[in-house]
Design brief:
- It is a single chain.
- By secondary structure, the protein is an alpha/beta fold.
- It folds into 3 domains: 44 residues, 434 Repressor (Amino-terminal Domain), CATH 1.10.260.40; 122 residues, Rossmann fold, CATH 3.40.50.2300; 127 residues, Rossmann fold (3-Layer(aba) Sandwich).
- 45% of the residues lie in helices and 17% in strands.
- The strands form 2 sheets. It has a 6-stranded parallel sheet with strand order 2-1-3-4-5-11, with helices on both faces. It has a 6-stranded mixed sheet with strand order 7-6-8-9-10-12, with helices on both faces.
- The longest helix has 16 residues.
- The protein starts with 5 loop residues before the first helix and ends in a 9-residue tail after the last strand.
């Protein structure tokens, strides 16, 4: 059943709907006695102001739209930090999820209906043409990927440098047979593949690259293939923490000890990597810093600044899934 409306509160208070609106908006025009009585009645009736309608009446919605992949733990971490960063700047966040059953364009359409002042797209798979079109409707920023789309801002981590940190760490531990389970066609995967090849070459090594993906299943499948090879790797760098979790699971099921037999490095430093039973060595993109940079860049776009690219340096977080090479 529909909840009580402003008109219902007005009838109960014996005043006009306009006067109730004044009270609810907290603007001058009602006596303190009237204000107290209306608020008491509204509370007793369970009336909740329609914030969406209120924003539609405002010249500025103070709302930033965010699309994110529902199944990506790191996106959840970023969303949490985006809320904090937006709040510090007097803005709110409107979320729209991307899922296997819901494409990026559907998520973006929802944000446009919300009258957001800017759109922040986390790891979006929209092509450059679609991003350019979107930027013509609302200031648009993509996070954790590259784009050459006209009018679109970018905030991302340096994926080439991030993978190099993982390779350097493993080589310092004595590993020489190092494999990379990549992200297939996921945003950022090409940079991480290139970074892996360049870092291995810098150490005079040749690494194996296997097609993986964003999920545990993808990591498990790729690790299974690597174990079937003659001379399997002594260390694996996965595309993200979720993929690395699949790698770890396969190693355990095949009786391989981590890190004594095989070392594993993830990417993102998501909540998966920090779980007490996992404690995964990983590359951190620093979600709070990335979120603050994204909100600031989005607000610069709303102010009319030209879009630019902000690239943040990642760091390595060493935990219990890496050890000396064998």
């Amino acid at each position: 059943m529909a909840g009580p409306t402003m008109a219902d509160v007005a009838r109960a208070a014996g005043i006009s709907t306009a006067l109730v609106s004044i009270v609810m908006r907290g603007v001058p025009g009602a006596s303190e006695a009237t204000r107290s009585r209306v608020l008491r009645l509204a509370d007793e009736m369970g009336y909740v102001p329609d914030q969406r309608a209120r924003k539609l009446r405002q010249s500025s919605s103070r709302l930033i739209g965010v699309t994110f992949e529902l199944q990506q733990p790191f996106h959840g971490d970023l969303v949490e930090q985006l809320y904090a960063a937006a709040s510090e700047r007097g803005y709110e966040i409107s979320l729209s999820a991307v899922a296997p059953s819901r494409a990026d364009d559907a998520a973006v359409t929802t944000l446009l209906r919300e009258r957001c002042e800017a759109a922040i797209l986390l790891g979006s798979r929209l092509d450059d043409a679609a991003l350019t079109t979107l930027a013509g409707r609302v200031p648009t920023l993509v996070v954790a990927r590259r784009t050459a789309a006209a009018g679109v801002g970018v905030v991302r981590g340096d994926d080439v440098a991030g993978i190099a940190l993982a390779v350097d760490h493993l080589v310092e531990l004595g590993h020489r047979r190092i494999a990379h389970v990549d992200g297939a066609d996921a945003p950022g995967s090409a940079d991480r593949r290139d970074g892996f090849a360049a870092a291995m070459a810098r150490h005079g090594l040749t690494g194996e690259v296997r097609t993986g993906g964003l999920t545990e299943e993808a990591g498990a499948r790729a690790m299974g293939e690597l174990l079937d090879d003659a001379g399997p790797p002594s260390a694996v760098v996965a595309f993200n923490d979720r993929c690395a979790t699949g790698v770890l699971d396969t190693l355990v099921h095949h009786g391989r000890r981590v890190p004594r037999d095989v070392s594993v490095v993830g990417y993102d430093d998501s909540r998966l990597a920090r779980a007490p039973h996992v404690q995964m060595t990983t590359v951190s993109q620093d979600a709070p810093r990335l979120a603050r940079a994204a909100v600031d860049a989005a607000l610069r776009l709303t102010a009319g600044d030209e879009p630019g690219e902000t690239v943040l340096a990642p760091t390595l977080v060493q935990r219990s899934t890496t050890g000396p090479g064998v």
